[in-house]
């Protein structure tokens, strides 16, 4: 059996080989549903990874600052004087990365050195933009997981890592 051949002068390269080729509405809807399901699974996972990253950075900064303040106390026999939010306490200049202290921290708050406020000496953060649940996760990694007890506590509106009660 001979296959009919289209005359060459009637063939245009822009002609599709089959004018009915393409995706049906059902096929497109199935692909959209699959992509939606994948996004529904990925977005919460992304949020958890983001929170874990924020927590790790906060804990790392807190340890760096606490070492600097403890070093100051060891050299001078006393804690540095109280300072306002984002202000580097007198005598602490150069002991740590001051831009990290002055700027917003990973949980959206600002660092603050507290001396004789709620505790004898502590590193606080004020104005955090994360939930108390996330701050409890941080507390669980560095302390007891309870924001009312231990070395990391919530004194509304600040969260304080206590160096000396």
Helix content: 40-55%
Q: Treating each run of at least 4 consecutive H or I residues as one helix, how many helices?
A: 3
Annotation, overall tally of beta strands: 4
> In one word, what is the shape?
elongated
- Largest sheet at a glance? 4 strands, antiparallel
Structural class by sheet pairing and helices: alpha+beta
Determine Rg (CA atoms, Å). Answer: 30 Å
Average residue pLDDT: 90
| SSE arrangement, N to C | HHEEHEE
Q: N-to-C terminal Cα separation, in Å?
A: 98 Å
Query: In terms of per-residue confidence, which ranges show pLDDT below 50 for 5 or more consecutive residues?
Result: none
Q: How much strand content do the residues show?
A: 5-15%
Strand arrangement in the largest pleated sheet: 1-2-4-3
Quick synopsis:
The protein has 165 residues and is α+β, with helices and mostly antiparallel strands. The protein has helices spanning 25-76, 98-102, 132-142, and strands at residues 110-115, 121-126, 152-155, 158-164.
Describe, in plain words, how this protein is organized in 3D:
The chain is α+β, with helices and mostly antiparallel strands and 165 residues long. The chain is elongated. Helix 1 crosses helix 3 (132-142). Helices cover 41% and strands 14% of the residues. It has a domain at 64-165. The protein starts with 24 loop residues before the first helix and ends with a strand. The longest helix is centred in the N-terminal third of the chain and has 52 residues, at 25-76. The protein has a four-stranded antiparallel sheet with strand order 1-2-4-3.
